[in-house]
Amino acid sequence: MTDTNDGDSATAASDRGGGLPPETRIGRGALRVADLDEAVAFYRDVVGLSVLDRNDGRATLGAGGAPLLVLERDADAPDRERSDAGLFHTAFRVPSRAALGEALARVREGWRLDGASDHLVSEALYLDDPEGNGVEIYRDRPREEWPRTGGGTARMATEPLDIEGVAETAGDGSDGGGVGSAALVDRAPADTDLGHVHLEVTSLSAFEAVYVDGLGFATGMSGPDVRFVAAGGYHHHLGANTWRGRTTPAGGRGLAWFEVVVPDVAALDAVRTRLDAVAAEGDAEFAVAERDDGIVVTDTDGIEVRVLTE
User: Fold this and answer.
1) What is the pTM for the complete model shown?
2) Looking at residues 77-99, what average pLDDT do you find?
3) 71 to each of 15, 67, 294, how far by Cα in Å?
């Protein structure tokens, strides 16, 4: 990874009424799945989410009563093609290293781990759900420990995770069993959230036009084939990459939509203003529609992002 110059993106956002407020966060994500029962079982038993609501065609899962993931049954939707843009992974953020160790124990008990990395700012586990949707479970290090570039941006890398060190923390303070407790903790902590969403896109410049110039995220640590963008100095709320050479818009099963939550109506109006300016300049083709609680942006790759207020 190399750090891009985020001065241009910051200037562009300023020209269009400023960037996103620091309180901006990712809300819910939604997946279109063929087998709802199997998907619910995975996100409940492996990721550790609780089922908050369920009917024949839809399930909502979350932590501490807060909804984080919506699963929508669509058995007739085609499989995602290898060329389609869409989801790289949804990333569930747990509040501690002990909670990450508990997640690792659930994965080892009932699933398979595909990867594990130390990103300097965070420690992460990677796996795929039953339908091939990427999943990250991670914990952040304290912000004061994040390494920084010369420009002050959080510096990230991909290094091997001390996976056994993480495993040994399971049960530390959360189930009363002590460090390395053999008791399997079956639920993620109440303050687990959806920390970021990582997309596969066909064009990074089009991604930046919509999400940086339009929505107002700031570009952080990035490389030639990847962009990380965030609000409030976070390492990233959204990632986008072209690693697999996706060439066609999102289609079929997989990511249905995700939410960006801003703190107030003024912030939402500023997003509208910036998107209008980007549309007028013709830098990217995207659609904007109004809803009762905010707006829906369908980006260049057909990915739907819902911008809402708290």
Assistant:
1) 0.92
2) 97
3) 38, 11, 21
